[in-house]
Write a structure and sequence with these properties.
The chain is about 70% helix and about 5% strand. It contains eleven helices and two strands, in the order H-H-H-H-H-H-E-H-H-H-E-H-H. The chain has a two-stranded antiparallel ribbon with strand order 1-2. Helix 7 runs antiparallel to helix 8 (about 185-205). The longest helix is centred in the middle third of the chain and has 37 residues, at about 90-125.
Length: about 260
Amino acid sequence: MIDVQRAPYSKRLFAFLADVILAGIITAGLYFLLSAAFNVDSYTNRYKEIIAGYERDYGVSFKTTAEEYAKMTEDEKENYKNAVDAANNDKDANDAIVTSYTLSFIIFASGIVLSTVILDFMIPIFTKDGRSLGKLLFGLGVMRRGCTKISTPVLFVRNVIGKGVFEAALPAVIILTVFNNVTGIFGVILLVIFLIAEIFSLIKSGGSSMLHDVLADTVVIDWASQRIFKTAAERDEFIKESEKQAAEFDPYSDSKGNDDSSENI
């Protein structure tokens, strides 16, 4: 049998943090570039202009605090309510803010996925060993659980689909929508589902693998000490040869033992 040299949690943590920092830098850069390309600020500015118009028309400020509102007269409160209702019912304002939020969420998620593609897919393909920069830095690697080299399709499933989409982009966007009161309790339920999936993955793997590793049937290993085979056939041949050599080895029938037996007769 071939032992799996699992990577220690400390190295995995540091490699993960290194990759997260790099991904954050790339994601932020892509977000600003894509936001400028799709002119997201124009929709936000349009919304602010419409709201400012209602503030001028009604002589109110939508930044009024609860204490300031409590000090208003009944007529002022009625005027303020009318201003709020008019602003909330303005189709152009609603379209502008919805478009702004939608584009922001899509661009943010796309930035995360693209950064994952660059760091966890393109670079590992370029290095030809399936390792991200974080894993290269801390001497870690990734292989199939059968001790075979990770292929390009498996690398895509593990890093782009598993890590980039399910573990990074979707949860991050859901968290943003929850904090912006867009998805509400539905978003919280989705986050709980993602959390349960991660916990199930850890339990299923004995505490060693997260969702992306379970999806791709991979394991993070110590690169220097792990034997990795190019194909399953190569692995099977190695195991067969090792078992053959072990079967042929008999510590009780060496030449010295035979000589001693001859002398005693």
